[in-house]
């Protein structure tokens, strides 16, 4: 969840270059924000050097949805959304709905203060600020415990970097009077919540998710649980849709936080067809049997034994061992239930509820229900209604009412030298603290997606999709002006725009941006002491 994803702190090799007739250096191979050679498309490592070789694989492998499918539901979407820089989401529809209905929602992201803030971090700054401007409760946190435990930075170093991150966030438009800024190390509520969440997590799970082993120090593991508390912190005073803007490498944090949000609930809500419990695969078989038999005999009560007979008749030769085992276990459960009616219901399961809370939930369901030792089956409430009722009862009796946090995912920025943007390679990125003239020079020296000669460029057009300089236009320099970003793209691929002039324009715009940004940083520097955040850590 902490934002190191626009760059990679490891040293990445860059392509060799020679001068060309196009007035610039010959381009190294770049990913254009879409593809990086040699990247690992399966393992997402929040602290490592992982990038994504094919963003499309994330949709299938990790259940991330495409942002295109919901963008029309977002009021006045940010230009990063419109241009496909924000490419994926988990359940962001809940946040979009809250925006449209003027309901409460929140946004939170964190920054690990291991170096200077740079243009990659600006993506996340912009996402936080835009959600705040749409009416969301905005949270910006400094992940200083993580920086100390996972990266080994001293507290003096952390203090200096933390100050710089906050100054840039404020200079870009974050409203501290309406928002929340904090450090992990000084937020007792976050630390208390982390302690409670830690009860629901164990070493084996963290090892499987993060590849921790016997050499991983305890503080590093503790920092993970602290991040889970950060993600859920906006809901401590009440449940609300909450979005976490991150790069795809941070998705393991989001998935674990969603799991822990469910585990600490007093109640879980599922759907069922009979009094016994089923797993997802068994549930699917029972559902199919109920639907088929109900359609065949609409005036008759479908009973468990009928469903067992139906499924027995569906045995397939050559079925996998797993499928055959699932079918056998489902048939067994149905036969044991005998003539019990097979009837759809919403089940509210007692996970961590007190006796008083469970009794209160029974009383709160004023429609048809059946009460068991560890769950309640209700036949008239929808899944959504049952979830909301269970949440209300839990909160009234001292429990958590967390909603599963949502997330949006943005593409990695390509380094100016090609390949990965790396904090350890100054020429590959532009710090928000760089002298504006240095920013100009870095853009002028950047590799591009241009052809070998001006003649070839005019004939074939440039490769804007593989160009770090075009990314600067799309991600930053065009601002909210889609027409300008499109014009640069079309002129490039149409052969009208040559790389020398294009880089000169981008370099001038970058210099102007840095000058303006640093002026605003100076304005906030004078007001920083008025903020409720301490930049001088007492830790050693």
TrEMBL record:
Q: One Pfam family this chain carries?
A: tRNA-synt_1b
| Polar residues: bias regions | 8-21
The residue ranges flagged as biased composition, category Basic and acidic residues, are 453-463
The EC category is ligase
The main location class comes to: cytoplasm
- Motif 'HIGH' region mapped to chain: 113-121
Q: Which InterPro entries match?
A: aa-tRNA-synth_Ic, Rossmann-like_a/b/a_fold, Trp-tRNA-ligase, Tryptophan-tRNA-ligase_arc
Q: Which GO terms describe its cellular component?
A: cytoplasm
What are the entry keywords? Aminoacyl-tRNA synthetase, ATP-binding, Coiled coil, Cytoplasm, Ligase, Nucleotide-binding, Protein biosynthesis
Where in or outside the cell? Cytoplasm
Which GO annotations describe the biological process of this protein?
A: tryptophanyl-tRNA aminoacylation
Q: Coiled-coil region(s) at which residues?
A: 503-534
Q: Where is this motif: 'KMSKS' region?
A: 420-424
* Example of a GO MF term: ATP binding
Under which EC number(s) is this enzyme classified? 6.1.1.2
Q: What is this protein called?
A: Tryptophan--tRNA ligase
Q: Which organism is it from?
A: Halovenus rubra
